[in-house]
Amino acid sequence: MRIVVAALPIVLFAATVCFGFGLVLPIAVFESFLVFSERPSLIEVLTGLWQEGDRAIAAVVGLFSVAFPAAKLMVLHLAAYSPDRIHWVKRVGVLSKWSMADVLVVALAIFAAKTSGLAEAATQAGIWFYAAATLLSAGAAMILTRRVGGDE
């Protein structure tokens, strides 16, 4: 278990980097009529929703896509490096429940585009980085929980 705990800083760093890439790299490609192609990143999707007047949807997507995962990573970093870890690790559990919501939404959007016949769609690097960040942060939370629980 000591080796796993020693890997915690690397896992947290990788999760943070993957989260950043997941926000700015294209999450999917949508091609229609063999001429038009869009490769939006998560940030571009949020910006587009906001500019089109869909501010409520943009706020909800931003909350679950950016704010919750960023807060989770921040809490994990605080828990890993602060003396009162138990207090912080318990809070991570609340944020973890929303971790894979965005990956599911993108998967559903791609499925809908493919089955509608109006466009072809495929995943891009951004969604894979985002998913990796989610899994790495879940792994870090598990390591911290075990360390706090005394399984070290």
UniProtKB/TrEMBL annotation:
Pfam families: PqiA (PF04403). It comes from Bauldia litoralis. Keywords: Membrane, Transmembrane, Transmembrane helix. The lineage of its organism: Bacteria, Pseudomonadati, Pseudomonadota, Alphaproteobacteria, Hyphomicrobiales. The chain crosses the membrane at residues 12-36, 56-80, 92-113, 125-144. The keyword Mitochondrion does not apply. This is Paraquat-inducible protein A. InterPro entries: PqiA-like.
